[in-house]
Design brief:
- The chain has 11 helices and 9 strands.
- By secondary structure, the protein is mainly alpha-helical.
- The strands form 4 sheets. Strands 1-9-6 form a 3-stranded antiparallel sheet.
- The N and C termini lie far apart (about 50 Å).
């Protein structure tokens, strides 16, 4: 929980931490998670599929030809931000705020990712704006009939309707980052992986049905969140290692997804693996990613529509990465689509 430091190696000062259900244990974790999980139930995913495809087609059809552009901005950010706005029923014209707040929430103050966020106080000031905006949406929806968006779900559920402002902000950040950074960086990382493994790209073009195994391989390869952290509440021993009370215990998803004892040729990008879902990028157990199926659906549709349109997408420069031990992300991926 927030008193013990949170879920990342880097931690905000105690007075600036916000709690969310990913940092909780049962039963409170289970109750809050169940509040939002219906939004990605199979029936809802089926209902969203046509909207996702329509938006994906519109974004891809708008891309320039014979001209360098940033895939991260034009495709990855735009598609995931539109999806986030839908999940929250967020004013569509303000949707770029969701991207901004996600970036602010995951940045390390002073690391250079966002020059204006030089201190923890800067970060706190920006996230206070997020809380103010969403509190207005909450107040509108708590006094209306229950809706099918995340804010209405939180406002009407007995498990979450009495959250403190810090807890509300914590869960907002969790849902924004979970719905943004992960899918967004897999959309960029997948294109980069196929560019660097042209024989796999050729295999995909020859057999588009391999998209089914391509998607989990992209997620494994990219591992968009590198780690998850807990704090030891007592002295213990694990695998012969002594862990003291108060120690940070870090689970490296990235390392697990390159584990030679669990995955054949883990350092190779192979789109037709026999067991492509054998990865831990979504976590495991009670904290397994709530929106994993939605992320896979977005990636599946993106690659189906790419293959229909573009025989070639050239990566024309080195990508620029986010400076973070937590988010494995990109700020720039320069590409060119030949006419």
């Amino acid at each position: 929980d927030i008193a013990h430091g949170g879920i990342a190696i880097m931690e905000a000062p105690v007075q600036m931490r916000a709690s969310s259900f990913i940092a909780m244990d049962p039963p409170k974790h289970d109750e809050q998670r169940k509040t939002v999980s219906p939004i990605v139930a199979p029936g809802n995913l089926a209902a969203m599929e046509s909207t996702i495809r329509m938006r994906t087609c519109k974004v891809l059809d708008s891309l320039p030809r014979d001209e360098e552009f940033n895939w991260v901005d034009r495709v990855s950010i735009e598609l995931t931000t539109q999806m986030l706005a839908t999940l929250f029923d967020f004013p569509f014209e303000d949707r770029k705020l969701l991207t901004w707040w996600s970036d602010v929430a995951t940045t390390i103050p002073g690391a250079g990712n966002i020059p204006s966020i030089a201190t923890w106080e800067d970060r706190q000031e920006e996230l206070a704006k997020c809380l103010t905006y969403f509190t207005r949406l909450w107040n509108e929806r708590v006094n209306a009939l229950p809706g099918h968006d995340l804010i209405s779900m939180l406002a009407h559920s007995p498990a979450t309707r009495n959250m403190t402002p810090k807890e509300f902000l914590g869960n907002l950040i969790l849902l924004i980052v979970g719905g943004n950074d992960t899918t967004r960086n897999s959309m960029s990382g997948g294109l980069l992986a196929l560019h660097r493994n042209p024989e796999q790209f050729a295999k995909l073009r020859a057999s588009p049905a391999l998209i089914e195994s391509l998607v989990p391989e992209i997620i494994r390869w990219q591992t968009p969140l590198a780690h998850m952290r807990r704090t030891a509440l007592r002295d213990t021993e694990l695998a012969g290692k002594q862990i003291k009370q108060g120690d940070k215990v870090v689970m490296w998803y990235l390392s697990g997804n390159r584990d030679e004892d669990a995955i054949d040729n883990p350092n190779q990008f192979i789109i037709d693996r026999a067991r492509p879902r054998q990865h831990i990028a979504f976590g495991f157990g009670i904290h397994r990613c709530v929106g994993n199926r939605l992320a896979e659906l977005q990636l599946k549709i993106l690659w189906e529509e790419i293959l229909k349109r573009f025989p070639v997408i050239e990566v024309v420069g080195e990508p620029k990465r986010v400076r973070s031990p937590f988010v494995r992300g990109f700020t720039d991926l320069p590409v060119r689509i030949p006419a």
